[in-house]
């Protein structure tokens, strides 16, 4: 495992574009710190400071930071599809196989890299959340701090699944730009399918089916936190209530998609004439 991971990291770090994109993908989550210190002057009447509104209290901060950090995953997605595109354009894939690397090991090296960077991103997000929470939160009891840390696990699973999908599209089309285009096409197809099902049957049934689709199932792991924040400010508004928790069956579904994407990537490489 370490040998394959080290081999892939060497390739990425020798590529200037990959280094820049990796750096950006790790630095952007730190902008949440800037968000926490943001002060908004409302027409000169009063100053609105997000950090003083309670949105960075434990345990809600785990939900907030993982949701926002996951929005920056597109930068490393470019790195993932570039890993495959560069292998084909630079002929390094064929050379690696000639040098004794099996096709299974080749796919595993990519997957191990995905896990590694997803883990690093999760640790950074946890560190940022802890620092902001300890500074702003009114609750500092260990039990409350550790509540809802399952959002971190959901964040890790979400990244691994999304990057595995990028890996599959990269293997499918061999070109970075086309692979990213396929992501956008899949997003459109999922929503078109939802619209057709809602028109044909019922919106609730259509939504339940849509939640099984790859991109939507990944999104559902960490639902938007804005409605939850509104619930804390207006507890009497029953219509604001919604299910924002991390569910294990949703995580199992996303892990199933991840396994399928890795398996299909391997099958494509195994059958392809290099």
Automatic annotation (TrEMBL):
> Which key words are in the record?
Membrane, Transmembrane, Transmembrane helix
Q: Which species is listed as the source?
A: Tamlana crocina
Q: Which Pfam families match?
A: ABC2_membrane_2 (PF12679)
Write down the superkingdom of origin.
Bacteria
Q: Where are the transmembrane segments?
A: 20-40, 60-84, 111-136, 151-173, 180-201, 251-269
Key word Transmembrane present: yes
Recorded coiled-coil stretches: none
Keyword Transmembrane helix appears in the UniProt entry: yes
Q: What is this protein called?
A: ABC transporter permease subunit
């Amino acid at each position: 495992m370490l040998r394959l991971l080290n081999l892939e990291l060497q390739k990425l770090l020798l590529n200037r574009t990959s280094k820049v994109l990796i750096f950006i993908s790790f630095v952007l989550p730190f902008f949440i710190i800037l968000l926490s210190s943001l002060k908004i002057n409302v027409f000169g009447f009063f100053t609105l400071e997000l950090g003083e509104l309670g949105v960075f209290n434990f345990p809600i901060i785990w939900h907030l930071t993982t949701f926002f950090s996951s929005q920056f995953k597109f930068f490393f997605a470019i790195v993932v599809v570039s890993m495959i595109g560069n292998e084909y354009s630079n002929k390094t894939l064929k050379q690696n196989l000639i040098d004794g690397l099996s096709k299974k090991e080749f796919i595993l090296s990519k997957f191990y890299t995905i896990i590694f960077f997803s883990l690093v991103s999760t640790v950074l997000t946890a560190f940022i959340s802890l620092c902001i929470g300890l500074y702003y939160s009114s609750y500092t009891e260990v039990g409350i701090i550790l509540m809802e840390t399952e959002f971190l696990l959901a964040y890790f699973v979400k990244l691994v699944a999304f990057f595995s999908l990028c890996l599959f599209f990269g293997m499918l089309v061999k070109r970075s730009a086309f692979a990213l285009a396929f992501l956008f096409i899949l997003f459109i197809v999922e929503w078109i399918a939802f619209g057709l099902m809602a028109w044909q049957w019922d919106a609730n049934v259509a939504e339940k089916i849509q939640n099984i689709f790859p991109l939507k199932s990944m999104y559902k792991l960490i639902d938007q936190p804005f409605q939850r924040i509104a619930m804390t400010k207006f507890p009497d508004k029953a219509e604001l209530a919604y299910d924002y928790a991390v569910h294990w069956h949703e995580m199992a579904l996303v892990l199933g998609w991840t396994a399928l994407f890795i398996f299909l990537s391997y099958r494509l490489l195994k059958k392809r004439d290099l």
